[in-house]
Specification:
By secondary structure, this protein is of the alpha+beta class. It has a domain of 126 residues. Helices cover 27% and strands 23% of the residues. The chain has a 6-stranded antiparallel beta sheet, with helices on one face. A hairpin with a 7-residue loop joins strand 5 and strand 6. The longest helix is centred in the first third of the chain and has 28 residues.
C-alpha cells in the first residue's frame, strides 16, 4: 500500500509549530536587530528618493533601535518592533503604519516664547500591516504579513512594500490638494 503524500498547507505564521527554534533563541535577537536596522535604512532611502521624485522637502527620520518614523511632507510612515513579554523574536511582531498627517514635527516650537503656535491636525492611519518574523537562520529571515501566505518579505522587500504605500498616500493627498513646495511667507 502506498501512503499518500501529506496535503500541502499554507504557511501560517501564527502556528507555533511552524515557528522554528531559531526564532526562540537568543541568537535571533541580534539578527532581529540587524534586520530591523536594514528595514529602517531601506525606508529612509526610499523616502529620500520619493522626495526627489515628487519635488518636496527631504523627509524627516527619527530612528531608535525598535522604532522608525519617516515624515515625508504631509504623510508619514511608522514601523515599530513590538515585543510580547520576552526578548526573543518569536514572541514579537512588526507593526507598519502609513499616516496622513504629521507624526514627526520639525521642532519649531520654542517653549520659552509665549504666543500663538499652530497645532497640527491629528494624524489618520491610511494603511496598516502587522508582520511576524520567520527564519531558520539569519540567511532565511523573512517578515510575514499576519495572514496566510506562503512566502514573506526580506527586509528590503518589505521596505519597498511600505514605501509603495507611502507613495500611494502621498499621491492621494496631492490629488486632493497639491502640495505647496515653496517657502513659507
Amino acid at each position: 500500500m502506498i501512503d499518500s503524500a501529506p496535503a500541502e498547507r499554507a504557511f501560517d505564521p501564527r502556528d507555533t509549530a511552524a515557528r522554528t527554534s531559531f526564532l526562540s533563541s537568543h541568537r535571533a535577537q541580534a539578527v532581529c536587530t540587524r534586520e530591523f536596522a536594514r528595514l529602517s535604512e531601506g525606508l529612509v532611502a526610499a523616502a529620500k528618493l520619493l522626495a526627489v521624485e515628487t519635488g518636496i522637502e527631504a523627509p524627516t527620520a527619527r530612528l531608535s533601535p525598535e522604532r522608525c518614523i519617516v515624515q515625508l511632507g504631509p504623510v508619514a510612515l511608522t514601523v515599530a518592533w513590538l515585543r510580547n513579554g520576552t526578548d526573543v523574536p518569536a514572541a514579537g511582531q512588526l507593526l507598519c503604519i502609513v499616516w496622513r498627517g504629521v507624526i514627526a514635527p520639525r521642532g519649531e516650537h520654542a517653549p520659552e516664547r509665549r504666543g500663538w503656535r499652530q497645532v497640527p491636525a491629528t494624524p489618520q492611519s491610511v494603511w496598516e500591516e502587522t508582520c511576524l518574523p520567520s527564519a531558520t537562520s539569519e540567511a532565511t529571515w523573512h517578515w510575514h504579513p499576519e495572514s496566510l501566505e506562503r512566502e514573506g518579505y526580506a527586509s528590503l522587500e518589505l521596505a519597498g512594500r511600505c514605501s509603495d504605500q507611502l507613495r500611494t498616500a502621498l499621491d492621494a493627498l496631492m490629488q486632493d490638494a497639491p502640495l505647496d513646495t515653496g517657502s513659507a511667507t
